[in-house]
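**Reference record**
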Amino acid sequence: MNTHSFPKLVPAILAGIWLSSTLSAQQFHKIGLDEYRDKMMAGWIGQMAGVGQGGPTEFRWQEAIIPANEVPTWKPEMINQFHQDDIYVEMTFLRTLELYGLDVSIRQAGIDFANSEYPLWHANLHGRENLRSGIAPPDSGHPKFNSHADDIDYQIEADFSGLVAPGMPNIAIELGETFGRLMNYGDGLYGGQFVGGMYAAAFFENDIETIVRAGLTCIPQQSQYAECIRDVLKWYHQAPDDWQATWNKIEAKYQKNPDYRRFSCDKGKFNIDAKINGAYIVMGLLYGKGDLDQTIVISTRCGQDSDCNPSNAAGVLFTTIGYQDLPDHYKSALNPEGKFSHTPYNFPTLVEVCEKLARQAVVRAGGRIETQADGKEVMLIPQQTPEPTAFEQCWEPGPAANSRFTEEEMAQITTWSKARKMEEFLKHQAPGWTLSQCGPDMDAPAILDEWNGREDVLLIHPLDRQTPCILTSRIEIPQNQPLTLHLAVSHHPSGDYDLILRADDELLLRQTVGATTAKDGWLDIHQDLSAYAGKEIQLQIVNQPTGWAFEGAYIGAIHLH
């Protein structure tokens, strides 16, 4: 041994001793890979069970508790939920992670989501249309561009983020930053990070209240979402055996009080805001008291989005139990070959990709996977203190990023957007007009070659029962040459709708368009705008729903002269 090198070795040896003691002092979660897989599988079964049983009740009860006899009776075949947006959307995110890894960029995530082909609604729909039209994330979910940014959407599809991150809440939070911002912002984003945090905790904790509080640490405490969850916990302790008493308190504050619906897409009975539906997830978990059936039933009976909420609640609870210990009626009829809509996954391949990503997550978090003497693998996962994302509110948002896809990125979006089709159509047929809040019913928006004898007809449809589809244009009315808006509008033979015209916030016209008013199939509207001579106004043509039956508006002409 070269004695001259000994002094140089001493600091290295001491450093090694210090590093070893640091690692040994660090707290680790330990879980066998078989146990992880068993719990992760149960989490997916829980989602499928919750949405399967609650599905027929979705939004049929608003501002009302669902009667017990209206909750569908569970049947084992209900588990095969392969066509539910509550489930297939998150598989798009899993596919992105499978292809590009946990450090995938938000822009690549946006491109992949833009290329999805399944039907969507609310924040998801608007976020995807923004992406397809070139608005890159995070702006696709920013309130400036997405009027549904506080809706439930990322909350219902965030389960994956905790299922691939056992004991790693910060990875669930980060995944929310990558995927939740495609469509949501503020409380809409926090709802998903809360759900992901609960799943991450459910691998190592059985006490439900502890799991709920673990999820709560994953979001900004000054947010209304966090306030809502704290309220439910407080009211639960005040009435631990009377869930309807707590439901009434939730209703009074988070349904009836406008201060807690400041960015709701609708201010009426219909409430798809993330907060109140998040409260109903927690209602099922707390008042279900660990009973699988009751957790689903109570979360369902709370109403509103009564399939998504029991899906989240059951997923978390089932994760604590594990697949092997689930009752047979939740797994006996599972079709392992059933393909989840518009995804490459059936149940076995879904399990495989989640395990693959969980292995990556453990290493990324500074943990390791060891092989024991018996040949079985064990995950050693450093315990994490959650680091929530920055605080923000949809009704007082920070500045948009002004993020746009490059030409090269747009070339990767191969699913031609209806929004882009509409832009091209409106540019030539109605220059200066833009379309917003159009729903997918009746295959809208669409350009029809012919309708009732007219060619090149624009078909639009309200987004939902409360949200109209709107055509908007900013128009400067000449001082000495007043304009008139000329419209030719039609309707479906089995439905009608209200046509509303507004100039800025002033109502100009409200006219039902249906069989009694458009007697030859078309109704011609001529709206005088002379009162606005010399002014610039925002003019809106509104397709307002009435009875929610075939309420598409067919527009054969839009002219100003």
Q: What stands out?
A: The radius of gyration is 27 Å. Residues 1-25 have pLDDT under 50 and may be disordered.
